[in-house]
Amino acid sequence: MGNVERSLKEIGSFMKLPGANLFVTSTTKLFNWAQKSSIWPLSFGLACCAIEMMSTFASRYDLDRLGMITRASPRQSDLMIVAGTVTVKMAERIKTLYDQMASPKWVIAAGSCAISGDHYRHIYSVVPGVDWVIPVDVYVPGCPPTPEAFIDGILELQNLISKGETSPAYNAATYVGKDAPTRTNGIKKEKNLIESRFVNQDEILEYASEYKSKGFLYLKFITATDFEEGLTLTYSLSNTKTNEDIELNVNLRSNLEIDSLSNLFVGANWQEREIYDLFGIGFAGHPNLKRIMMPEDWIGHPLKKEYAMETHRLPYRPSKEEYESWKTKL
Ligand code: SF4
Fold it and tell me: Does domain 185-307 have CATH number 3.30.460.80?
């Protein structure tokens, strides 16, 4: 049985008559089937997530087989995949492109920046989720989402379209205290994280060396989180042979300096520079600890909660007071 016939069987039934084949379905189901089988996304990306989206479209994953062909014009597109950080400046352009797309149209918010602003959500220039600007049908978590996650989100959108069930969500923050939309999709958890532990600030080199000697040779990422009461560093190490990950966390309270892992993992070099630049954390023993994103003479560290967020806020930028009031309502 061909793919088309198999997929048509999901929306109706074939009848064999003398001299003819008859297919019985409803026009709604037929149109939904046609729409979900020919989604044409707009060629458009915003930040690092877009790189992952490009690899999803490339030959290894090959989205053409889902009937997806990217278009360079919004007028020929019916899907916008928002992949990357949405800045206040870009928000207007995104809205214009969305308005220019053909209807019916759908939106996938891909990656934690597009979903919520992620670690940039408190920054004056970032929109805390693209659903402040346009309605979103499917959210694909990750920083960035893997190609498999992108495909999962697209298949989910196809499911919703074929059932006629797309119910785009608009700016979850506006629902606080009212009728919050509920989503029933289960959260998929990463299965390969085998251990997550907190270690002391002066033990990070020791633990990282120990795990490296056990086969965790790949430093997936180092990231920092500002919990207001203090900064926490998170290190993710991977054993690519066993496909297992471990996570080391360090709470930094007063002393914002920790040993560098750059002699242990080559990839630590630029990641530590990024954390130094954005959070002001020092890495002792780093060979070249200087800013990597902001200009050398920039004042302050933009990902710290104390960083000013009161400028450049309209129209898609909540104030600090609004954030605080949501926190108490949530
Ligand atoms: S979610 Fe992560 S990978 Fe995606 S745009 Fe934001 S920072 Fe970059």
Answer: yes
